[in-house]
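DATA SHEET
Item: assembly model
Revision: 1
Owner: S.N.
Input lines:
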Amino acid sequence: GAVVSQHPSWVICKSGTSVKIECRSLDFQATTMFWYRQFPKQSLMLMATSNEGSKATYEQGVEKDKFLINHASLTLSTLTVTSAHPEDSSFYICSARALEDSSYNSPLHFGNGTRLTVT
Amino acid sequence: QKEVEQNSGPLSVPEGAIASLNCTYSDRGSQSFFWYRQYSGKSPELIMSIYSNGDKEDGRFTAQLNKASQYVSLLIRDSQPSDSATYLCAVRDSSASKIIFGSGTRLSIRP
């Protein structure tokens, strides 16, 4: 149980274009999804918290107009990197918390990540 | 700024020995602590979670928590080459709204 699917697993795009990454909870409903970014040899940095039916909460320093997050249903959240630049190249990972597992102690279930390369 | 600190390593341990990974955190109100393992190019996978002071054992893994010292550790007994990975310490902050990760410790098990 608690499977999170992320698509695509990797993408190469040209500078200036936009890229959409999907995060789906396959066997559970998730009111909250989290988007992380990881640069090589660094830890996961939380970008934003996505709540179903409401606006995402962005961490300090993350441009909300550049990283558009939509959480339209209890099983799907999307991250769109707009006008991508080479410095946006990174490993993007989503995670989700199950609706029925919203206790303080519940861990996060991670997707497999998306490797974005902007040329 | 709430922080989670780990030694980046690499930590080299001979096969069959005990690997000891340490983590400290700054938010004294934190209640939930997690250890994740991450292989290169892959997403993190949950190894252990711990919420109460003391030890929690699961197979070859033992998590230890000391809230007074704001310290959490992970012991891996009978280390195997497949344990070679980066281990991430994660802490749910006192507001319970998000999980903050340490920078990770790279563990290498040498045959």
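QC remark: Chain A touches chain B through 20 residues (CB under 8 Å).
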